[in-house]
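Recall from the previous lesson that a structure prediction takes nothing but the amino acid sequence as input. Here we apply that procedure to Chemotaxis protein CheW from Pseudoduganella ginsengisoli. The sequence below is the only information supplied.
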Amino acid sequence: MTAVAHVNRNAVTATAAEDSQQFLTFMLGGEVFAIGILAIKEIIEYSGLTTVPLMPECVRGVINLRGAVVPVMDLAARFGRPATQIGKRTAIVIVEIDADGEQQVVGVMVDAVNAVIDIAPTEIEKAPQFGARIRSEFISGMGKVNGKFVILLNTDQVLSVSELEAMAGVSNLAGAET
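The prediction returns the following tokens.
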């Protein structure tokens, strides 16, 4: 696996304007999404995953990241959409989330990484309670960028390990019943 980019979170926070927040934008099924830069550890090229039996459909497998086993989630599948089609720009964004008070590292498959952008707090609207094509608790807000909205993801909710474990348990039970 070749590293595409490392994110120095300390340098990002030191250079960021006090009144704006930085987000990594990426494409997923033709839509632009963003994750707060402070949650991102690095971005790597997509390469083969090791599949793990009896995992929820949205967990595509695991990767070996410098000796650590990191689960990789397909965000499109997590949102109830068709699985991500692997292309030349497909990447895995390595994200650190808070899982029941502990830090957990998870990879997120995206169609393509765009850029790191600054969004002023005045340009961030509350998450819509309806009308979005993903669950409202997955959205931390809607950022206005160049007259368009960017969906700001709540990574702790989207990548919730306990919810995925519950999904795996349901999948395992369903598989056992057939």
